[in-house]
Amino acid sequence: MTGKSRWINVCILGALLVSRLVAAPGNTEVAKWKNNKEAAFIFHFDDCPPTQVEYAIPEMTRRGLIGTWYYICFCDTKYGNGDVWRELVYTYPGQEIANHTMSHEGGDTYEWIDYQVGECARLIREFIPELQDKLMSFCWPGGTPWNISSAEKEEILKKHLLVARNRRGDCGRNVSAEEMFSFVQWALDNNDYSDYCFHGVGGDWYTISLDAFTEFLDMYMEVKDRIWNAGNLAVHKYIKERNTARISVPATGAGHIRLSLKSDMDPDLYDEPLTLITEVPANWSMCTVTQGGKSDAYQVSNGSVMYNAVPGNEEIVLTDGGATPIEQAPRRGSGLNTGFEGPGEVSIYDHRGRLQMRFDTRDM
After folding, report:
1. Which residue has the higher pLDDT, 75 or 21?
2. Where are the alpha helices (DSSP H) in 23-149?
3. Does the pLDDT at position 288 exceed 80?
4. Rounded to two decimals, what is the model's pTM?
């Protein structure tokens, strides 16, 4: 054997040893974006003009796309009373209502601006009670002065549990589909997040044409499997939780892996599930993931399983497809060889995290 051949063999052996050390059961990473997508994208809609209700909402929802809709409480349009926006949230899960102040008119005193921001937050939480004591997205309206200091603005937002949006995209009018899609392409090219902000769609103010809007959405749908579409708040939470996530593996054993997932964020406010990818034993083909009494089954691919979990105090337990979960109350008869016995909802996902089947064992 030549010296060169020996050197190649040593390198191969070293790589195999390193990979075996790295790919130990329990080794876990947090995906940069939900469901290990390449990027994230947010559709912002400001000011609640009528054309958003008449054109934007139908075009978005029929494609299964999620938007963040910035609501003005004293909106003087025919859809300004909140009913449409409440129905949007309850009919299409994931759609997000955000705070755009009471009247979009600006202000010169702390007290008036606090009212503009805080009263709008209160009214939105009144007609969507699930937002009580939860974070809400917020945007300072443009074109009007908000003449208080940055520190005072931050104090008001913190007091009312509001998160200011951090826009990266544009907010153009009379722009082409290609111009709007360039921000989607930027996100994909940079493995990052971006967005686009709309006002009127096919009419009203600061408008883009309906044709350009629908063409843009169709272009987006061509890459939708590569990019995470979510509301502003979900993306904000994911980034904050991901950037401060800490994972430990208290124990592994025959047929199970225990994980602890924590972040530096307040778990009562930051509750967006993070996507985790965990190495599992080579003989696992299915994996059941349990956290907080909820269990889902996932396919194992290339020695790892991808799933979603919420940072906090609830331990995560991964079990082999046929094993009984550690310290979980026994359940009866899922019929899926997950090892769970007893009534409850069971979800089956493929190795890419796509839902394949969901049923309730109480119906069996």
Report:
1. 75
2. 50-51, 57-62, 83-91, 110-127
3. yes
4. 0.82
